[in-house]
Amino acid sequence: MNIKKIAVIPNLVKDKDLSSTSKVVKLIESSGITAMLSDEYKDSGISAAFVPKDQLCTAQMIVVLGGDGTLLAAAREFFPYEIPILGINHGHLGFLTEIEKDEEKRLKEILLGNYSIAKHMTLSVKTGDGTIYNALNDATIHRSGVSRMLAFSVYVGDERVNSFLADGLIISTSTGSTAYSLSAGGPIVDPTLEVLIVTPICPHDLYSRSIILPAQKDIRIVVDNAQEREAMLTLDGQVGCKLRTGEDLIISGSRKIDLVRTIDSSFYRKLRKKLFEKRR
């Protein structure tokens, strides 16, 4: 791909003085590529092309500075435009981000066109009123009020798979298997696999375990006591809505998004470095 414009998405919590953003913009511009920033940053002193936020979608690549949460928000915002996203980690773990903030050499290689694209399946979540949400990591059903358990029924098509009595339920993509699902006891899944992982949160039945289901089929989830327990649906831990008792949620695998990876990128090396070796 001949890249002429790259949109840069800062995180003011992680990069308060925009010093990292300024460095990234300079590297992009020195590579002969136009760096685009939202015009809300036009008084920052950074030399870039400032445009209205809704015009950032005209870029051929998006560079996100922050942690996985920043990348997840960008992925949902730019989901309709099919623009490859590169994450530069300024957070803690950084499973979705590809390079660390001090890895200028690796960023320069990407700007020279030496990179690969990893396609990650997203979730499509349809609520009872017909609203459709998309998520990259997971959809979580949980309580928003008093500490009482929720009752779930899970179906593949019209066939009931299982019922759960638990504090909540996580429906995760393979990409999200290393996020909230993992914390709740779910399995680690290679992100190239197109599956849905259904994991109960603190189930009443101590023998309840995650179930891995096909992403190509509609997974139907009913919360039998949603209204009474003030149940909520949350996407990627960031946005959501209230649920009604008996409301059907239809969840399936959806369109893939493109994440920019270095040529030598390895999920298993990242797994060792960020999860296993940190515990030694």
Quick summary of this structure?
The protein is α/β, with parallel strands linked by helices and 280 residues long.
Describe this structure in words.
There is one protein chain. By secondary structure, the chain is α/β, with parallel strands linked by helices. It folds into 2 domains: 5-113, Rossmann fold (3-Layer(aba) Sandwich), CATH 3.40.50.10330; 122-255, Sandwich (Tumour Suppressor Smad4), CATH 2.60.200. It is built from 5 helices and 18 strands. A 6-stranded parallel β-sheet has the order 3-2-1-4-5-6, with helices on both faces. It is elongated, with a radius of gyration of 20 Å. It starts with a strand and ends with a helix. The model has no long low-confidence stretch (mean pLDDT 92).
Question: What attributes characterize this protein structure?
Answer:
280 residues; alpha/beta; Rossmann fold; Tumour Suppressor Smad4; 6-stranded parallel beta sheet; 6-stranded antiparallel beta sheet; 5 helices
